[in-house]
Prior knowledge:
Blueprint: E1 3-12, E2 17-27, E3 30-41, H1 45-52, H2 57-77, E4 81-86, H3 88-92, H4 96-107, E5 111-113, H5 116-125, E6 137-143, E7 148-154, E8 157-164, H6 168-172, H7 180-195, E9 199-203, H8 205-213, E10 222-223, H9 224-236, H10 239-244, H11 250-253, H12 256-270, E11 274-276, H13 282-294, E12 303-306
Parallel strand pairs: 1-4, 3-12, 4-5, 6-9, 9-11
Antiparallel strand pairs: 1-2, 2-3, 6-7, 7-8, 10-11
Helix pairs in contact: 2-4, 5-13, 7-12, 8-12, 9-12
Amino acid sequence: MIEKKSVGAIDIGSNAVRMLIADVEDYTGTVSYKKTAFLRVPIRLGEDVFAGGRIGPEKQHRLCEAMQGFVHVMNAYGVELRRACATSAMREAANGPETVQAIEACSGFRVEIISGQEEADLIFSGGMRSLMDPGGSYLLVDVGGGSTEVTVYAGRHRVDSRSFSLGTVRMLSGAVPGGECDRFKEWLRQAAFEYAPTVIIGSGGNINKAQKLLGRKEKEEISLGDLKLLYNKIKAFSYEDRIHRMGMNTYRADVIVPALKIFLTAAKSSRVERFMVPKLGLVDGIVHRLYRDAVPAAADEPERTDEEI
Length: 309
């Protein structure tokens, strides 16, 4: 007998708002996650927050419109379990709590503003454990619009983590706090000394795009040398050429440069030369966590993630 639940997750990030709907099935002791719908709206809350400390009326309106649309889509799919999490921009916005109230008033959806630590833990929940060798040491690096979360895993267990105010929109806005890049490098050097990670697991839309541009399949490794070559190639193109000659979307063509710079800096500082890109992010982690919390017995069952969209 197959037991199935429809689960929905929303990630309100500094660059974009994402919604994932997945059918989670338990069949003969194996839990499978089948993605059935994914939507992304590039609202860029960070443009307002990192420059002026608040979410402006126009972006707040667009966010409410997006959330109303997501709720309608979830209802149409018959989503049983749902959760929305907001990250760096909403954490820092002086009117973050006010914006959360506005979203609930217009859509009926209660948004949670989560810490960088919880963000990293949720991302790991989205199936990362199955990628790791039990005896290996890894760096999970998630580059977002407003922050970068770095977590060290040894023996499939989190042993250290840190959230840095380094993000693509923040860098483009010139709003990175003084000394933050140096703190990022020093923390990674110390992590490398203590745990000797051999692989960086990259998370975020920009490293996913890099993997595609390099012609790699999902979970196929990328070498540091190949990522450097791609970074230099993209950087040499103008914003317009990235769109028209490289086929990038307008919302990707600018942020991919600072994102790859962060990944390359992470690799150099930690002396790691291999990247793994499983294409798992915060929305995947939210889906997995929602299901496990609803069906505790599923936590010990093997998992499989299937791409349906």
